[in-house]
Write a structure and sequence with these properties.
Structural class: mainly beta
Shape: elongated
Largest sheet: 7 strands, mixed
Helix content: under 10%
Order of helices and strands: EEEEEEEEEEE
Distance between the termini: 37 Å
Radius of gyration: 14 Å
Strand content: over 45%
Number of helices: 0
């Protein structure tokens, strides 16, 4: 699998952005897609996940402001980010848990990251 992220940019506080993570290549299944973010000098932080069974989780700091979703037909996952704040400034990454075949074990693949900058 290969993941390509897009949608990052510069936005003013209170604004919105939608990140996309498009999967391509040959894979059997992606069962969980996760969004992380990272700022310099800090660990990568898990902020949202969406599973094939529809289970969605958010970290408290984005609950109610961010929405994770997927478009199965396009093999694309989204992170809609509303009411952005300067503390949301980070590089955002998507990560897929996937298999290459039914009998394969679960693997992980990270996107390249997209920068989100929120100005005050």
């Amino acid at each position: 699998v290969h993941l390509v992220e897009s949608g990052g940019g510069l936005v003013q506080a209170g604004g919105s952005l939608r990140l996309s993570c498009a999967a391509s290549g040959s894979f059997f299944e992606i069962n969980v897609m996760a969004w992380y973010r990272q700022t310099p000098g800090k660990q990568r932080e898990l902020i949202a996940t969406i599973s094939n069974d529809g289970t969605i989780t958010y970290v408290d700091s984005v609950q109610g402001r961010f929405t994770i979703s997927r478009d199965n037909a396009k093999d694309t996952w989204y992170l809609q980010m509303n009411r952005l704040q300067p503390e949301d400034t980070a590089t955002y990454y998507c990560k897929a848990n996937y298999k290459n075949s039914y009998r394969d074990f679960w693997r992980e693949y990270w996107g390249q990251g997209t920068q989100v900058t929120v100005s005050s």
